[in-house]
Amino acid sequence: MKQNKNVAAVVRELVKPLCEEFGYILWDVEYVKEGADMILRITIDTDAEGGISIDDCERLHRAVDPLLDEADPIEESYMLAVSSPGVERTLTEPFHFERMAGSDVVLKFFAAVDGSKSLRATLVGLDAETGDIVVNKDGEEKRFPRKSVAKCETVFDW
């Protein structure tokens, strides 16, 4: 069996041009085990008003399916899922931090920082030089090395 991250990277390269052709932003590709099943999850976004619809997901799914059959990057059986990242999304790639600057985020730390394992703040961005995640908390800029942050997620107050 191929490495899961390698599968995701190969699939990312295969589907990125198709996403661009359709006017979608390829947000993420994951190849993960959920229960007894392997799931290939392709997450797409858009700048279009209204965001990603179920029709958009279905359209990409139908276009990606034969592409994956032909390239055959996955040796085992799997389920293909195409979805939007939703309003609350995990930020992992540099462009995620750029696109979501100004959003409220929760940082979850591997080890407590100032006595807490999480922090809610406004995302400023990702420092290109240092790789630090930069946030604004109560008017004060704070920086955290990415390696100290287990997860960075946008939050939406319903």
Question: Can you describe what's shown?
Answer:
The chain is an alpha+beta fold. It has two domains: 80 residues, GMP Synthetase, Chain A, domain 3 (2-Layer Sandwich), CATH 3.30.300.70; 61 residues, SH3 type barrels, CATH 2.30.30. Helices cover 27% and strands 39% of the residues. It has three helices and eight strands. The chain has a five-stranded antiparallel sheet with strand order 7-6-5-4-8. A three-stranded mixed sheet has the order 1-2-3. α2 links the parallel β2 and β3. The longest helix is centred in the first third of the chain and has 19 residues. The termini are far apart.
Protein traits:
globular, alpha+beta, three-stranded mixed sheet, 2 domains, SH3 type barrels, 158 residues, GMP Synthetase, Chain A, domain 3, five-stranded antiparallel sheet
How many distinct beta strands?
A: 8
User: C-alpha Rg, in Å?
Assistant: 17 Å
Which second-level CATH architecture of the largest domain applies? 2-Layer Sandwich
Largest sheet: 5 strands, antiparallel
Q: Provide a count of the helices.
A: 3
Low-confidence stretches: none
**What value does the average pLDDT take?**
94
Helix content: 25-40%
Kindly report how far apart the N and C termini lie: 42 Å
Shape: globular
- Strand-residue fraction? 35-45%
Order of helices and strands: HEEHEHEEEEE
- How many domains would you count in the coordinates? 2
CATH topology of the largest domain: GMP Synthetase, Chain A, domain 3
CATH C-level label of the largest domain = Alpha Beta
Looking across the biggest beta sheet, what order are the strands in? 7-6-5-4-8
